[in-house]
Amino acid sequence: MRSVRARAAIGATLVVAVALIAAGAAVLLSLRANLIDQTDLQAEVVAREVAAQIAVDVPVDRLDLPDDEERPVQVVAEDGRVVAVSENLEAISGTSSGQVAPRSPAPAPTGDDDDEEDDPGRGEVSSDDPRFRSGSATVDGESADYRFATVEATSGAARTYTVHAGAPLATEQDAVGTVRDAMLVGLPLLLAVVGGVTWLVTRRALRPVEGIRSEMAAITRSEDLSRRVPEPASRDEVARLARTTNETLAALEASVERQRRFVADASHELRSPIASLRTQLEVGAAHPDLLDVPGAVEDTVRLQQLAADLLLLARLDAGERPGATPVDPAGLLREEVAQRAGDRIPVEVTAADGLEVTGSRNQLARVVGNLLDNAQRHAATSVTASVRSEAGRIVLAVADDGSGVPEQERERIFERFVRLDDARSRDEGGAGLGLAIARDVARRHGGTLTVARSASGGALFELTLPEAPPEGA
């Protein structure tokens, strides 16, 4: 079943059906138990009235039995003989005897008749709780179900009799049947109402979802990521879904635009050295004596560096995770500075030993190299680099005394292929990828890369990385 509305309607209907059936069964059982208790009480009252007569020595053949055909009575002697039955009783079941014709009682035990007449109250009705059983009886040609109460009584002559008195179950059966029929009629109607209301409510609730789906399908067909799905005015889950979808579309649009701009900028950056190199080679082919070998080598190196930067960015964008190699940031900084002995401005290094971070040594070395290149490109007379520990994090700082970075441009310089106005010369500067690569590497190592104003008025770049936990921690 593919429709959410249908599943919701059927599910709600089934839940309500189970609940109603359980509640209906409980109501019927409770009603039946209460009515049976009332019927038992009626039967017990009649049985005790007859037993009371036996207890005061009323002869069993002269007992005042109810003449109501709905109250059948049967009196059984202790030897199993039926000694009294109510009028017009034709058949009975559910008592200790199925006989309906009374027999003569056994002779009374020998004794002083005068004593018995003087003390007629020696009989008693059993104080035990009466026993109840279901049965049936036929009175005056009509059969019905009854509840029989059984009470024992002892006469003054020390004879024990069992009195069975019945009360009809017709009232209980009629009441339970009426309630059951009403439930059987009302239950389907109620379930139909529940299913219909659930269908309509679910349809109304899912209408915005259908709008989101249709708009997403249109966006997919048109490939126009500037479009947005409609956002309901409500504050429910559907509205949050629409907002999240629009945020995803906005992020996707920005990513696609960034990718397009990246491809365009990369093509532009590659075209210049390739065109220059091609021109030099064509001139050299036509006039070997005019071949500018150093210029061709310079353009080739520039192409190689740009290709390496693009490859690293592609790996970072693909989610390449850095390694987990322990790296000494102080030693890494000293190695990078030592390899740059030909820089126009010497680098002053202040690095605390004994510190350690975890990550890719090659990528971190690339970050340090890019920061030093940037400082060398803009410094006037000095470049300083330091490594320190600060609140459980390692801070590697590179500062220069150049013109610095305007505050409004301090985030923009980390975008790809971005060069500020004073660094647009491709002969003096790079392609605008160094700082973008540095920040991406820092983030993938769980750190940050920020720029601020240095004490000498130039730029201060700070690479912050989490300090490696102690060995064995």
What does this structure look like?
The protein is built from 8 helices and 14 strands. It is an alpha+beta fold and 473 residues long. The chain folds into 3 domains: 4-176; 237-317, Helix Hairpins; 325-466, Heat Shock Protein 90. Helix 4 (237-286) packs antiparallel against helix 5 (293-317). The chain starts with a helix and ends in a 7-residue tail after the last strand.
| Morphology call | rod-shaped
Written as H for each helix and E for each strand, in order along the chain, the element string is HEEEHEEEEHHHEHEEHEEHEE
Radius of gyration: 52 Å
Whole-number count of domains: 3
Largest sheet: 7 strands, antiparallel
SSE blueprint:
Layout: H1 4-55, E1 73-77, E2 82-85, E3 89-93, H2 113-118, E4 124-125, E5 131-139, E6 142-154, E7 160-168, H3 170-222, H4 237-286, H5 293-317, E8 325-327, H6 329-338, E9 347-351, E10 357-359, H7 361-378, E11 383-390, E12 393-400, H8 434-444, E13 448-453, E14 459-466
Parallel strand pairs: 9-11
Antiparallel strand pairs: 1-2, 1-7, 3-5, 4-6, 5-6, 6-7, 8-10, 11-12, 12-14, 13-14
Helix pairs in contact: 1-3, 4-5, 5-8, 6-7, 7-8
Question: What attributes characterize this protein structure?
Answer:
alpha+beta; 473 residues; Helix Hairpins; Heat Shock Protein 90; five-stranded mixed β-sheet; 3 domains
Quick structural gist:
This protein has helices spanning 4-55, 113-118, 170-222, 237-286, 293-317, 329-338, 361-378, 434-444, and strands at residues 73-77, 82-85, 89-93, 124-125, 131-139, 142-154, 160-168, 325-327, 347-351, 357-359, 383-390, 393-400, 448-453, 459-466.
